[in-house]
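Journal club prep, notes for RB
We'll compare a predicted complex against what the paper describes. Inputs for the 2-acetamido-2-deoxy-beta-D-glucopyranose case:
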Amino acid sequence: MKLLAVLLVPLLLSVCLGKVGDFIRDCPGFFLKLNGVISPPTRFVGNQYKQICQTLNDKVEFASFYDTNNRIPVYSAYKFIGKVNCTRRSGKWFIEPQLDDQTQGVNMKSESGGTYGDHQALNKDYEKQTPRGEYHKGHLVPVYHSSTQSCANATFTLTNAAPQEASFNIRWFHHAESKMEEKMSTDCINKGWNAYVVTGVVPGNTKLKNRVLIPSHYWTACCCLDNNDVPKLSLGYYAENINKSVINEVTLQALENELNIKYGQNFAVFPGGCKMNIRKF
Ligand SMILES: *[C@@H]1O[C@H](CO)[C@@H](O)[C@H](O)[C@H]1NC(C)=O
Ligand SMILES: *[C@@H]1O[C@H](CO)[C@@H](O)[C@H](O)[C@H]1NC(C)=O
Ligand SMILES: *[C@@H]1O[C@H](CO)[C@@H](O)[C@H](O)[C@H]1NC(C)=O
């Protein structure tokens, strides 16, 4: 009996802790905690939406809320630890096996050798575009904000990416991702505080390969908490997913107002706080 219990426990654990599961149960560490409550961004209701605790080599690196109908994420969430200068771009893209086959393991893996794609984007969806190369695989969690090489590698998963206009991708890096990194490092991390980031997209009207929805907008926001989990600072960026779009730096409140309209329902990036009486960085 005892032996059976010993054998069963690991089995039950591996069944319950599937990585396509529940943010609060499976990977709470990527979401800010306000008044003792773990507070992920709004999770839309519907079977097509999946909560992915992004796992590579058995290590959970960040979280993505994925829309299996549109085959793009709604958002990815992570904790920013501080910039390091030693991460290289792996360029090797993974997929999420559990989205197409629930019996698969927890780790992201290469699409080769499997039959995937019913519920997610594959590499070929981004290939042979006309006009050529118009859309990149745009990272939601960027390589640039990764603090380890294994996390940088894990950002190369198609459930963390959406079609992003090629030159806008580069400008988004300069005017949103790297600016936000600088502000978080200076005004939050250097004070020993904690920074949480959420980056998302708004669904547009057209698809790549009749499969992968092209977002109309990209957005990102961060919230900085002191060591008593008291919100100190917040900031957001918002832009259209087109060649020469203006990249707006906005308050969290302004961003959420915009997202409420664009998503057609109430949407909170940081539910419960980080915007009332909080100054922009
Ligand atoms: C990374 O490089 C920047 C400038 O290139 C430097 O200011 C910073 O201190 C470096 N950070 C680390 C962790 O080495
Ligand atoms: C990251 O990916 C590169 C290239 O795919 C690989 O050579 C390297 O071992 C990986 N590093 C880690 C820490 O996973
Ligand atoms: C996008 O903008 C860049 C820089 O302004 C320009 O060189 C390029 O031709 C534009 N591409 C498209 C497809 O409009």
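Talking point for the session: Residues 1-16 have pLDDT under 50 and may be disordered.
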